[in-house]
Amino acid sequence: MANGWARDGAVQDQIDDSIKDAVRNARASIPVGASATHCDECEEPIPEARRKAVPGVRTCVKCQSERDSARVHSGINRRGSKDSQLR
Predict the structure, then answer these.
(1) What is the dihedral of CA 9, 14, 17, 19, to 10 degrees?
(2) Can you give the pLDDT at residue 26?
(3) pLDDT digits (tens, 9 = 90+) for 26-76
(4) Whole-prediction pTM
(5) Which of 2, 7, 25, 35 is the most buried (most CB within 10 A)?
(6) Would you state the pLDDT for residue 29?
(7) What is the DSSP string of 48-72?
(8) What 3-state DSSP class applies to 4?
(9) Residue 38: strand, helix, or coil
(10) Is 6 helix (H, G, I), strand (E, B) or coil?
(11) For residue 74, what are the CA distances in angstroms to 21, 27, 46, 70, 78?
């Protein structure tokens, strides 16, 4: 189905690119390597149960919760219509 000036399949390409970006960002945030014994931010000890549950963990639960709540998602607008740019 054609969509204005866009070629057939362009909308699906936009959806696929958005999903690829989200997967890439999620994979980049997965910790790797040996877990730290103390938090990199507050120096508090990281419980052994957390170190076993999350390989490569570098922060305590409190600091990680603060990081997660401050996470910003990209606002990339992949739609090409003028109306989508105005919102």
Answers:
(1) -110
(2) 85
(3) 888 787 888 999 999 999 999 999 999 888 899 999 999 998 887 666 566
(4) 0.51
(5) 35
(6) 78
(7) HHHHHHSTT--S-HHHHHHHHHT--
(8) coil
(9) strand
(10) strand
(11) 9, 15, 30, 13, 11
